[in-house]
Amino acid sequence: MPGPKKKTAKTKRAQPKATPAADIQSFRERIDGIDTQIHQLLNERARVAKQVGASKVAQGLHTADFYRPEREAQVLRKAIERNEGPLRNEEIVRLFREIMSACLAQEEPLKVAFLGPEGTFSQQAVLKHFGHSVRALPMGEIREVFEEVQAGHADFGVVPVENSTEGTVNHTLDMFLMSPLKICGEVELRIHQHLLGKMSGLPAISRVCSHQQSLAQCRQWLDEHLPGVERIAASSNAEAARRARDEDGTAAIAGQTAAEVYGLNLIAHDIEDRPDNTTRFLVIGRKPFDASGNDKTTLLFSAGDTQSPGTLHRLLTPLAQNNISMTRIESRPSRKHKWDYVFFIDVQGHASESPLKEALEALKKQASLFRVLGSYPCAVL
Amino acid sequence: MPGPKKKTAKTKRAQPKATPAADIQSFRERIDGIDTQIHQLLNERARVAKQVGASKVAQGLHTADFYRPEREAQVLRKAIERNEGPLRNEEIVRLFREIMSACLAQEEPLKVAFLGPEGTFSQQAVLKHFGHSVRALPMGEIREVFEEVQAGHADFGVVPVENSTEGTVNHTLDMFLMSPLKICGEVELRIHQHLLGKMSGLPAISRVCSHQQSLAQCRQWLDEHLPGVERIAASSNAEAARRARDEDGTAAIAGQTAAEVYGLNLIAHDIEDRPDNTTRFLVIGRKPFDASGNDKTTLLFSAGDTQSPGTLHRLLTPLAQNNISMTRIESRPSRKHKWDYVFFIDVQGHASESPLKEALEALKKQASLFRVLGSYPCAVL
Description:
39% helix; 4 domains; five-stranded mixed beta sheet
């Protein structure tokens, strides 16, 4: 479909592709000019960041102390605010994360421990949050992630705290019962599952193919909408989508990307059983950080031995009275007494700022165990 | 170790950390200003890139055609040339790759097939070469990477061609015998192995721990320098380095990074048996590209049935006469006749430019089979 032709003289007939070479050349020159400016600014930014570092070193702080999650969150929020495109917020945030990562890594790259092996969602979370200029250290167990950070061998750790398979969550929460480490960030990887295929509706489906975990995440939906239809485990969702493209009667469960990549119809969307099918990770470190302006706080507390029905409600009253939103609550056995529970609660706000500060003071008085596990910036994209 | 104190008045005693807050604040404001400029330039670059795209669409080209490996190589080489630091060339190249990746992905992200699963070196090679704004599609076999590209389901493919374990190389070369695809890039991931430990020399080592592949890559060196010392396979080199830190008498084979991360001594460096312990990948696509100014060409040819001793020498004469450097030669059975071989040769230069152009014309006349598999930019970092 050739569009309206430009009136540029076609001098170079010899050129195999009929591109208006002069146009392309002038665009490229403009891009080269822009790149030169970007390049200068990147190095200027790195120089200023180095000065910040030098002034911190002069005060006896270590390189790992240069990383300020609250500052990074602010930089990224500002970038989203001022973004007018055409680059999408997602791309801009990714580029600025990488720029900060490169500037920070000038002295000594941050070491970040995570639950390995390499190639896992946990590693994705590390790179999404810290950029690619860090040293990501794979650990065999969640416990080891905590140990490496506590011993100072790693500057930070990234551990899963909520995911759809659930296996690891409790382990992470239980670690906080024993560990003095602080939560200093969160990372979210959202996962939506869709039913994809070449067919136009459910009746034409004779088998559903996907990675075992994705099949498990959509079990209820499949039981309800495709009872009796064979389910086949594939090595990956991408592999499943490819089969759906090549085999008659095969549908795949996979993400939006797979539909586009393999040219499949979206037969049913968001079929995951849990609407919040997000894997959420916590960043753990050795010290607390300042407020970023949009923060979350994770609390650990217990009512003690009294197990009267109104205990939890009474404990939560100070939060309600101070208008604090609670975004999550989990209970776990305290491991001290039978039927004694501890609660992990996520609330909005930073522990050092009103109104959360006052609410926590009141809560503290009533709880037998009370700890702020950390105040940290809400995940930016 | 507090350094020389600045004379800034410490007004804010309440602040827990003794940072000269005013200094930090002014640095941060400067960085915010720089970020705003970078941001504007990134979007301006994206707009110009979009115009280039629009002008190509107007000529009936597809989005996948916007990717120009020779242009990308030129942009990166210019960036290295003008780089004065403090950001290292490696970081600058990485950032510009990501910027180009984001600009290119505005319309529709490139789809790149690779030998999966995710988390492999092949995936690393895809992301290193194309940046993170592509859709990386894991395939189960090298053959499938070729098929996906040939069918147009993927825009490009990335396949290993040389690696230390060797298993996959021949398979890739053999695919080129049948496939019409063109080589349009190369990616190098260099791997150096070191012997690391807490001890200061070889006599104190009672066991060597590493990933099985790394142990295999250093077998000769170990046989020679540490005969009879136990070799233990670990799940990763990082795991091995951790054991070397925690266990007396254990040394690890791992990269430079592990020495820094785990605080180990470098007992012996570059102990890999092959000095060129680089995994090299080829980027494959459906069409050839123009010269970038520093290119390589891969040729496939055969002398035919005559197996007289001087055949290969005679075939290579036109290259020598035209002063063409040959960087690599591999022979493979032609699969047509017994003892009939084909040769894969890498030479410097682009097939469309002198002196390679003339040399190839002469070579072509003498060979029974002759194909230019591709001319492509030499790997940039």
